Each structure stands twice: as C-alpha cells, then as structure tokens.
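Practice problem: Flavin reductase like domain-containing protein
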Amino acid sequence: MILTAPALSSSVSELHGMTLSSVSSLTINPEPVVQFNLQVPSRTSQTLHDSGFLALHILPPVQDSVRLARAFSRGTQGAHLTKPFEELRPDEWRYFAANGIKIPILSLAERVLICEKHKVFRVYNHELWTCGVKEIVDNASAASSGGLIYYNRRFHTVGNKLEQ
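Answer key — structure tokens:
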C-alpha cells in the first residue's frame, strides 16, 4: 500500500508519502483500526505526527501501480530528499478534504482508507502505528482486484476466489 500524508503547505514538493511493506487489520470493534510500521527518522513520520491523519491506498495489480509503488519507496537517499509527487502527472492525484486538512490521494487506487492516528509505539529505529479508519474512498470506476502484493522482490496479484 502507498501511504500519503496531509499537505501542511501548498507546495507539491513538500508532499510526503511512502510505500509500506505491510499493513494489517488490528480491530473491527469498537472501530476499525489498521496497523503498519515505518523506519525513523522520516519526514513522512514527522508530518503524520503533526497532522494526525493519513491515506492508505489499495492499488490494482497493474504496471502503473508498480511505477507508483517504486516512486514512493525511495525515501531519503543520503542528503537528497525524494519528492514522489513531483514525478506524478496532475491527473494521477487529487486532494481529499477531511477534518479541515487536505490529503493527497492517488487516482489509480481502487480504495483509499482515510485514517486518524490512534497510538504510535517506538521500537528501536521503527514506529508501529495504529490508526482508526474514518472513511473509505471508493473509486467507482475501478473493479475490485484484491490489490497489489510485493514478495520475493517482485510485484504480484492476489489469486482467484476459492469456491466453497
């Protein structure tokens, strides 16, 4: 999944996001909560702490999703700060307004989970984030594919549904 952080300025070069290797459901009741971890220090982490909101994108298993996942996976490269939104065409993303903030969301996503920070735990050089799912943005033009999966250094799709 790709995580995007709210816009804290009007500059596209200041937008943050990252590809997450693992996102999982934590609870359903009393509210849906998901969990993921990220390495720190991180500009994206700081933006998330400052705003308290984020978007998680479920991408279809297509070549453009692989391109996006790779663009958002570069992180900080030495002293060079990567700027994935500068690599995107204007039609590949838009702002979603939630609780008085603007969160960039990717047009290609089948679903986007709009989340609010619940609790964050620091473990050595990582943070474990738990976030309440506040809203789901459904891209009506996209069929549900099961998402894009990364394992064994390659991207894959989820297999067909098993009949029972």
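Discussion: The first strand starts at residue 2 and ends at 4. Students who identified this feature from the tokens alone can consider the problem solved.
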